[in-house]
Amino acid sequence: MDFPKDFIWGAATASYQVEGAWNEDGRQPSVWDEFSHEPGKVINGATGDSACDHYHHYKEDVSILADLGIKNYRFSVAWPRVLTYDSDYKGGAVKGTVNQKGLDFYKRLIDELEAKGITPWMTIYHWDLPLEFERKGGWRNRDIAYYAADYADLLTKTFGDRVKNYFTINEMPCVLGGYSGWMAPGLEVSQKEKLNILHNLLLTHGMMAQTIRANVSGAKIGFAHCGAASFPETDAPNDIAAFKKCVEAIEGVEGKYQPASGTGHLMEDSLTMWCDPIYLGHYPDRAFEAFKGQMPVIKSDDMKIISTPTDFHGQNIYQGFRAAAPETEGEKAQGFKIIPFDPYGQVTAAKWPITPRSMNHFVQFISDRYKKPVIISENGMSGADAVSPDGKCHDQLRIDFTRSYLAELNKAIKAGADVRGYFHWSLMDNFEWAHGYEERFGLVHIDYHTHKRTLKDSAFWYKDVVSSNGGNL
Predict the structure, then answer these.
(1) 239 class by beta-carbon count within 10 Å (0-12 exposed, 13-18 middle, 19+ buried)
(2) Is 52 within 8 Å of 432 (Cβ atoms)?
(3) The one catalytic residue among 19, 132, 171, 233
């Protein structure tokens, strides 16, 4: 099996999940520092205070990337590490104070990547919002777009001569999840407020994209979306048609990431609700009927800003629903039915269903609808991984999982999807948000007591895949 020439093979991490050093060298608190320190919010009371201690082990981690032949590294910058804000200011879009020690860490990291011949892919925002902003309304406050543009301006003016690849925001639906109670800052707001937050996130993406384009010659810009990557039950035309209706859905089952038309409840990870404004310049028409009276205030230039041209679409894919042709009257009204997950089917350690076909038709749909090159910005699985008495970490299920997903991705490419790259999630085991340290997604095992790194069998397998451009799948 082969992938296109110059296919991008990489691995990914995120700042709060790996860096640690939560209060060192002038770093201010983020919403995740406050959330994780609140009793009962994270499993076993875990926090990202030390995480993988990447802040002090970055040279070792970059050496691991180099040894594995991974030439592309996706990482995020911790906003509160590089900019500090006065807790006494009131209102307005004011600039923060540059924390040079924080910037210097990312300079050292990029220096190390450059020395090892590894291309940096910078994610500007991966959820660690400065706590001071949440006290001013967080993503509910439209002004956050201006703060974020200042932040992007600092990063691109500082690193734009060497960093050319940018993700603006990672998984906007999960940022919205912070206002559904299960992510930081752990608030629960009305649907009208959620739609306002959705708009503010899109506006922020657009302003970041404009800033990057203005500051970085030759920049490649995208964002990383997420959500259930649905797929048709069969390749029969009626199932394919139902699948497309499913993927276009903007409404869902209340409290779940599951499409269901006619409910009036926003499906928070809808592909089209987030991506149509960015690529097509408008919200889906039916949004104004489905969410009548709840849609956000859209100012005159908002959609022009939101639809600032980008260069690629990042998609994080882990699992998906099976969609099939409708049978009942209710199903016919929405145009599809969802096939329930097999309760006896194969799952990951996180109890997520293993659905390789979610890397095929869904990717084709994105490529066809939006006419943008697709990069799989995250894909991987949680395993019950431990270091064996032989000193090694055997994780055959991760190898099988990744092989099966990449095989389906290859099918999508062969069918005509414009797919340019794949980033494995994650380079190393890390702090998995509200799940703490229960879930291990890494190619590299981390001992959280000693921070010892142990390469798993999957790391060596992935090395062979990368070196052969997928030929050793």
Answers:
(1) buried
(2) no
(3) 171
β strands within 147-262, DSSP E: 165-170, 220-225, 231-232
Catalytic residue among 233, 248, 251, 378: 378
- Given a contact cutoff of 8 angstroms between Cβ atoms, the answer to whether 67 and 3 are in contact is no
Q: CA 181 to CA 194: how far, in whole Å?
A: 12
Closest CA to 127 of 49, 224, 11: 224
Pairwise CA distance, residues 333 & 463, whole Å: 48
pLDDT of 88: 56
Answer yes or no: 408 catalytic: no
Which helix (H) or strand (E) segment holds residue 424: the answer is strand 419-425
Comparing CA positions, the residue from 259, 406, 274 lying closest to residue 334 is 259
Tokens read off for 469: 């451009």
Please give the angle made by the CA atoms of 322, 326 and 327, to the nearest 5 degrees: 125
pLDDT digits (tens, 9 = 90+) for 389-448: 999 999 999 999 999 999 999 999 999 999 999 999 999 999 999 999 999 999 999 999
CA 175 → CA 32, 186, 342, 443, 470, distances in Å?
A: 11, 10, 29, 26, 33
Question: CB neighbours of 414 closer than 8 A, spacing ≥ 6?
Answer: none
State pLDDT tens for residues 171-191: 999 999 999 999 999 999 999
Distance CA 289, CA 67 (A): 54
Spatial distance between the Cα atoms of 238 and 172, rounded to a whole number of angstroms: 32
Buried b / exposed e across 64-76, counting CB within 10 Å, b at 16+? Answer: bbbebebbbbbbb
Question: 378 catalytic, yes or no?
Answer: yes
Q: Is 292 left (phi over 0), alpha (psi -120 to 50) or beta?
A: beta
Structure tokens at 342: 């097999």
Distance CA 308, CA 299 (A): 15
Residue identified by tokens 């062979």 is 464
What distance lies between CA 448 and its chain's CA centroid?
A: 24
Count the Cβ atoms, other than its own, within 10 Å of residue 460.
14
- How many percent of the chain have pLDDT more than 70? 98
Q: Which residues contact residue 69 at a Cβ distance below 8 angstroms, ignoring those fewer than 6 apart?
A: 463, 466, 467
d(CA 247, CA 323): 9
Instruction: Output Rg (C-alpha) for the chain, integer angstroms.
Output: 21
Cα–Cα distances in Å, from 93 out to 44, 134, 354? 38, 14, 44
This prediction has a pTM of 0.98
14 alpha carbon, distance to own chain's centre: 9
